[in-house]
Amino acid sequence: MQSTLVIVRHGESTWNQANLFTGWHDVPLSRRGEHEASAAGATLLDADLWFDVVHTSLLTRATQTAERALAALGQPWLPVERSWRLNERHYGALQGLDKKETTEKYGPEQTKLWRRSYDVPPPPVQPGHLEHPSSDLRYRWLAPDVLPGSECLKDVVARVLPYWYDAIVPQLRAGWVVLVVAHGNSLRALVKHLEGIADDAIAELNIPTGAPRLYQFDDALNVVEATYLGDAEAVAAAAAAVAAQAGA
């Protein structure tokens, strides 16, 4: 039985627009992000996709993207499952800082190491800090030791994959068509796993905002197709914009 997964990175947020490290900080979509979310839904409609379920993080920019995309797709009633495991990577003490100013202060090599290395996290924040998840009531039911003060991509892989295996894989095995709307790094973690990208190569992967990526699997959940939907030039331009955010 062939199964289908589509992943979508949320549209531009207000902090993306301001070029700030966002992480777990909760911000809404910008006007451009709202348009990107609706456009993603239109692209899915053009591809004649009919979904069974959508998964999102607990962050507003992802939930708003899912809502707008489903409205444009004509499937606003779709069941939604949300999890903190799909949240963006926590950027620790970098959250709220300007990316280009951070590059100017610490240099392009250190900034890229914090942004894109597989196993080097930024400086952490401690419980009680406004940017620590313990200060946010939506995470009050989680065990304190799973709440990050900072994360590298390796940490994100470690929290995303249990959700993949426990929540998404059973749906794909049942033949469901699954939509995941999440974030640059939680999706990079998933793509790394699905496409077998090496630790030292994942730094160069840029996932564009609002661009649906479709996966087809065989009955053993091996990827048989992986492709972005929509205009290829627009997708490439959006990925290049992500790569340029730190000014490196």
Description of the structure:
The chain is of the alpha/beta class and 248 residues long. It has one domain (3-218, 232-243): Rossmann fold, CATH 3.40.50.1240. The chain contains eight helices and six strands. It has helices at residues 14-17, 31-46, 60-73, 99-106, 108-116, 153-173, 184-195, 232-243; strands at residues 3-9, 53-56, 80-82, 177-182, 213-217, 223-228. It has a six-stranded mixed β-sheet with strand order 3-2-4-1-5-6. A hairpin with a 5-residue loop joins strand 5 and strand 6 (223-228). Helix 4 (99-106) crosses helix 5 (108-116) and helix 6 (153-173) packs across helix 7 (184-195).
Task: Outline the biggest β-sheet.
Answer: 6 strands, mixed
How many strand elements?
Answer: 6
CATH topology description: Rossmann fold
Structural class: alpha/beta
CATH class category label: Alpha Beta
Order of helices and strands: EHHEHEHHHEHEEH
The first-to-last residue Cα distance is 45 Å
| Fourth-level CATH superfamily | Phosphoglycerate mutase-like
Average pLDDT confidence is: 95
Rg, rounded, reads 17 Å
The amount of helix comes to 25-40%
CATH architecture: 3-Layer(aba) Sandwich
Strand content: 5-15%
Q: Sum up the overall morphology in one term.
A: globular
**Largest beta sheet: what is the strand line-up?**
3-2-4-1-5-6
Number of helices: 8
